[in-house]
Amino acid sequence: MSLNLQSTVQLNNGAQMPWFGLGVFQVEEGAELEAAVAAAIKNGYRSIDTAAIYGNEQGVGNGIRQGLEAAGLKREDLFVTSKVWNADLGYEETLAAFEVSLNKLGLEYLDLYLIHWPKEGKYKAAWKAMETLYKQGKIKAIGVSNFQIHHLEDLLADAEVVPAVNQIELHPRLTQKELRDYCKQKGIQIEAWSPLMQGQLLDNEELKAIGAKYGKSVTQVILRWDIQNGIVTIPKSTKEHRIIENASIFDFELSTEDMAAIDAMNQNHRVGPDPDNFDF
Question: Where does the UniProt annotation place the signal sequence (predicted)?
């Protein structure tokens, strides 16, 4: 099956989610953010991922409108994700937080809404709120982020709707194989945040050598590895040439040997917080 930048995976509820998207973590409100989102759309991206805590939903919304207009596309051509922050977990709180996010983005609905972190004692009530919003048609799919197996088991014990997506830190040094296998068994799509390990793998000699075989950069090799592993990926960039380069991964395929070599780089090493031990 040959994929391209607009190729989608069917989620467990039938919704279609692009395999590849733009992340905007740590990109501040302003012209640079808006230009990056618009540039991504212009260059074929159909998925944009933000979160309430990023403090940039308004700029993302502006960039979406600019990009759609320039590309002659409609809202339904895009897949937009946001996330509810820990301070807003709870039934009424989550309903209210969703409306705030939607207003900032200037959208009628979200394609995907995620619980950002598995805050103990808080996420079940938030999930009930998300199920309500989902049933009302305000969200096309609901999911979680940073959930480990035990968090998912706890959530599934009472959930009416199985999460469509689990967005987790995932890169060659943190392959999360056990969690991926569990999610696959439950029909939960894995999505990688920080797929490039915040740039820490870009000088890796092993990845450089693999890239040289295909005439591709380390970044492109890692992102291709995600796709071939059935992982949705959302690299961040604000520069148009990088946005284009990051997405130039649909014209080559990593060999079975190279895939195995990258899999073997796992060290269970996190650059982000530990979902079992965070205090925010």
Answer: none
